Amino acid sequence: SRSICEHPDSKDSGGGIKSFSPKKFTRLKYFAFCIPEESQQFFYHWQRQRKIWWRKFSANPGRFLLTEISTDDNGQETTEIRAEFEWGQETIEIIRNVNTKMFDSLEPAEQEMFLSRVGKRKVLPHVVESETSLEKACMVFLCDGYAELPYHNDHREVFRFHRKLAPYKITFAAPLLNAKKADELRQLSIYLGLNLKKSGVSTLIAPNIAKKSLESQFTDSDYLGIPYIAVLNESTLEDGIVGLRSIETTLEEKIHVAKLTSYVELLIKNY
Predict the structure, then answer these.
(1) Element (H, E) at 203
(2) Cα-only R_g, the chain
(3) Which of 7, 89, 149, 238 has its CA 20 to 30 A from that of 16?
(4) Which domains does the chain have, with CATH numbers?
(5) Which residues are registered as beta bridge partners of 28?
């Protein structure tokens, strides 16, 4: 379920808590209705699956952990998924095994609506729920993707987004050339970029292509967390070969412009 909620008190208690828990937030909640005998097993299974999900889209999968399971006086079991950052841990999702507690406040006639048949008997399902928020998930992956990498005698700031989460999947770059060649490469980047956009690939056609050094163009792309850069050069105009640079490895693989769109689509699809 998805709902707009508001915290009664959003005071910042330090350590970036306010940024992860804004006063108004979009709550995302999942309910699983289980056969009573299988609810405990599903509770453990769902913990693992949710941790795997957070790790799958992370640049630093090791930062995610599960807390020990706690049990309250009513027998409700709770665990949390937390993310470890420089300032400490942030709780990003809560998973509960509430059994049949959510039905206790209902009238018998209302409970009857939820009865399920298991063999020859009718039982109330046991409920496992998990809860996070859209704003919290965004903050997690923004902070997770941010990195300061060594750069000459200094450092440079980059975003390393998973290619499914990156706002732009690909951009273009080209070295400094004479005005005529540079303009031809810019026109080629526009043509290729439009083809990518038509195929549903979010593409940034940067205005500084062939107007700055390649290194500067790579840096601009890394600031934005763009996973791939199609590197054009003078020989591209002759043989149609471009270099596809990955932000993760900084390595380039060679590919023909005719296959660029289909290959990038495949990269984005296979995550």
Answers:
(1) strand 203-204
(2) 25
(3) 149
(4) 2-145 (3.30.930.10), 163-270 (3.40.50.800)
(5) 2, 132
Would residue 210 be called left, alpha or beta, if left means φ above 0 and alpha means ψ between -120 and 50 degrees? Answer: left
Distance CA 140, CA 138 (A): 5
Residue matched to tokens 């050094």: 213
Inter-CA distances, 204 with 19, 88, 233, Å: 29, 35, 18
Three-state DSSP state, 271:
coil
Percent of the chain with pLDDT over 70: 95
Full DSSP string of 30-93: EEEEE-GGGHHHHHHHHHHHHHHHHHHT-S-GGGEEEPPPEE-TT--EEEEEEEEETTEEEEEE
Is the per-residue pLDDT at 15 higher than 80?
Answer: no
Query: Can you say how many angstroms the Cα of residue 232 is from the centroid of all Cα atoms in its chain?
Result: 29
* Per-residue confidence (pLDDT) for residue 104, from 0 to 100: 80
